[in-house]
Write a structure and sequence with these properties.
By secondary structure, this protein is of the alpha/beta class. It contains 22 helices and 24 strands. 33% of the residues lie in helices and 18% in strands.
Length: 633
């Protein structure tokens, strides 16, 4: 696959088929092209890479799918540009729907490119680490009768670990305290390390922003996934941190968990080429991980569905279930389990089709378990972080992994949760989603629907079915439809869409007249990127909050801490403005921009920008602060 093939998606050959690529032509120098060819050349001798081209098939049975190949090639182009020195701290983006094969792309980049010797794969959840640990070693590669042995991807031999575990002699390393010495001992060899964001944070220990929102730790869903590095001595931690900085590639799998800003600090501190994989990358992802649109791959939901990479989605209202419009949620669930889309599916392990039921809190989940059992005769499974140990016989679990492995859940149709089954569960026997309580945003809707997109058998008719309670049905289905509209828009030109999103304020600012008559005078345009501003150019309200400077931080240290804290919030283009020659020397001003949608719009967007100021005055042991949008620290 040539670099020129990435710039086209005309379907004239398989190298130009599958998703769309955004690639900045200006960086395609002779050096970049040569490096790209050198990095990709080893794949051209691999059957799993060549299968699609040789069979002219979008979905070859024994090779990477067409969009997976183009996602790999775009990633290699980004790595070539990075090695040629034409990319600084910018990250690349691979956007693919859940279930459409991003693991294949990650595995190829981490294990099958000889010149990419060290790869760090970071995910938000322990369950995802467990999946990646198995996939990168053998579970994914076994599809092609291959295995990763720590140096290369080779043919399987007698005695190799089973794709289904246990994963003995696995060369892939988990980022765990107990393995710190083992990881760093491989000082000159190939390395693939997988771990959670929280584990990486505990190793690198970046200084957390002085934000009012960063005092807490990760939420209930990531708290249980924390790895305790507190027993690791400082020298061992420093060795591990320095070792990670020698890596060739960092892969970030789903970055949207809070506190995403702190985790992006960790990734940036490694100063390694970074590729972000996500099914739902929006706004703050672009800001936190420096996504500009110069290096991006997009596989739209519509294309993935059209080529049967993922199941089609069917939204079912009460009438589709043979019920009256005012049918209760429980009645809808009972009708749903009897539908052919659910009841008619059989799986290789003889398990029944499963329905995920999303409920808003633990108490409501417990009530729902009782009500469903009474109405349908089917006792549901409960999965929630408030469940303790020893409830297996009651089908109540704290973790998804334990619930799926328990013999007590055999034959269970309804699986109730609040957040546990929102993502990170690759179980193709989940075929329907039933939502009792409104999800907080459309991103959560997309993640929830993603659980029912994986085919069990592409040769038969399978659908992912979505049902909602009557009071949230219109809102839920409307959110899904607007997501599909966004997918179609983004796919027209991913580079343009990303560039517009990442540079919207700068574009609006540059489009304004250089001089305008406003407020009774001629005024020059405020350049949001200007570095020649001085404190005397701003008008400040006469109020302040007074603090004691107990740590004796300098004025510039305080100002930089405040500017960095603004990154945690939706504040943009914050810069520290020094005093002018006629201004007091003990003042710093931080202008910034905020934006929000108009409160008078329900489903349309009209971004409203506001200009904010923070002033910091240092006088003796006192610090006087003003923030027009509320103190950020």
């Amino acid at each position: 696959m040539r670099l020129s093939d990435l710039l086209l998606a005309d379907g004239t050959n398989i190298d130009r088929t599958g998703g769309r690529v955004a690639l900045d032509r200006q960086i395609l120098t002779a050096s970049v092209r040569k490096t790209y060819d050198g990095l990709l050349r080893p794949l051209r001798g691999r059957d799993f890479w060549q299968a699609a081209a040789q069979s002219h098939a979008y979905l070859p049975p024994q090779g990477l799918w067409a969009p997976q190949r183009r996602a790999v090639a775009l990633s290699v182009a980004y790595l070539a540009a990075s090695r040629a020195g034409v990319v600084d701290e910018e990250a690349a983006l691979i956007k693919m729907p859940t279930g459409s094969g991003k693991t294949a792309v990650i595995a190829t980049l981490a294990c099958a490119l000889p010149q990419i010797r060290r790869t760090l794969v970071i995910t938000p959840r322990r369950a995802l680490v467990d999946q990646m640990y198995a996939d990168l070693f053998t579970r994914f590669w076994s599809r092609f009768d291959l295995i990763y042995d720590g140096e290369s991807v080779r043919s399987r031999r007698d005695g190799d670990a089973s794709p289904h575990g246990p994963y003995r002699d696995n060369p892939v390393r988990r980022l765990l305290p107990s393995l710190a010495e083992e990881i760093t001992a491989n000082d000159d060899g190939r390395a693939v390390v997988v771990g959670t964001f929280t584990a990486l944070e505990q190793v690198l220990r970046p200084k957390r922003p002085a934000s009012r929102h960063s005092a807490g730790r990760p939420d209930r869903e990531t708290q249980e996934d924390r790895d305790n590095f507190s027993d690791l001595d400082s020298q061992a931690r420093d060795r591990l941190a320095k070792y990670l900085q020698t890596f060739d590639l960092v892969i970030v799998d789903e970055s949207h968990y809070e506190p995403a800003y702190v985790w992006s600090q960790c990734i940036r501190s490694l100063k390694c080429p970074t590729i972000l994989f996500s099914a739902t990358p929006y706004r703050n992802d672009f800001k936190y991980f420096s996504i500009t649109g110069r290096f991006a791959f997009n596989l739209s939901f519509q294309e993935a569905q059209q080529h049967k990479l993922i199941r089609p989605v069917k939204l079912m209202r009460a009438k589709d279930l043979g019920l009256a419009d005012d049918a209760t949620f429980i009645e809808r669930l009972d009708a749903l389990r009897k539908r052919s889309e659910v009841a008619g599916l059989k799986f290789a392990d003889a398990s029944k089709a499963k329905i995920i039921v999303r409920v808003d809190d633990h108490d409501a989940i417990v009530r729902m378990q009782r009500d469903i059992a009474k109405a349908t005769g089917e006792k549901p499974v409960v999965i929630h972080h408030r469940e303790g140990a020893g409830n297996d016989k009651q089908r109540r679990f704290k973790s998804v992994t334990r619930a799926l492995a328990s013999e007590n859940t055999e034959g269970a149709v309804f699986w109730l949760h609040q957040w546990k089954l929102l993502e990170g569960v690759d179980e193709n026997s989940f075929v329907a989603i039933a939502v009792s309580d409104e999800l907080p945003n459309t991103r959560a809707v997309i993640q929830q629907v993603g659980r029912v997109l994986r085919f069990a058998n592409r040769g038969r008719r399978e659908r992912g079915v979505i049902v909602a309670a009557p009071d949230i049905e219109d809102e839920m289905f409307g959110r899904w439809q607007r997501y599909l509209e966004y997918e179609a828009y983004f796919d027209k030109d991913p580079g343009e869409a990303l560039t517009r999103e990442a540079n919207i304020l700068r574009t609006l600012n540059q489009a304004a007249p250089e001089l305008q008559y406003m407020g009774g005078d001629f005024r020059s345009r405020l350049d949001i990127d200007a570095r020649d501003l001085t404190a005397g150019e701003f008008l400040l309200p006469c109020r302040a909050t007074i603090f004691r400077n107990i740590e004796d931080a300098s004025l510039d240290e305080l100002a930089e801490s405040c500017r960095e804290a603004m990154g945690v919030e939706d504040r943009h283009h914050a810069i520290v403005v020094p005093p002018g020659k006629d201004d007091p020397r003990n003042i710093r001003i931080i202008p910034y921009m905020t934006w929000a949608n108009s409160e008078f719009l329900s489903t349309r967007a009209l971004p409203l920008w506001s200009f904010g100021l923070m002033a910091i005055v240092h006088e003796g042991k006192r610090v006087y602060m003003l923030d027009t949008q509320g103190l950020v620290i």
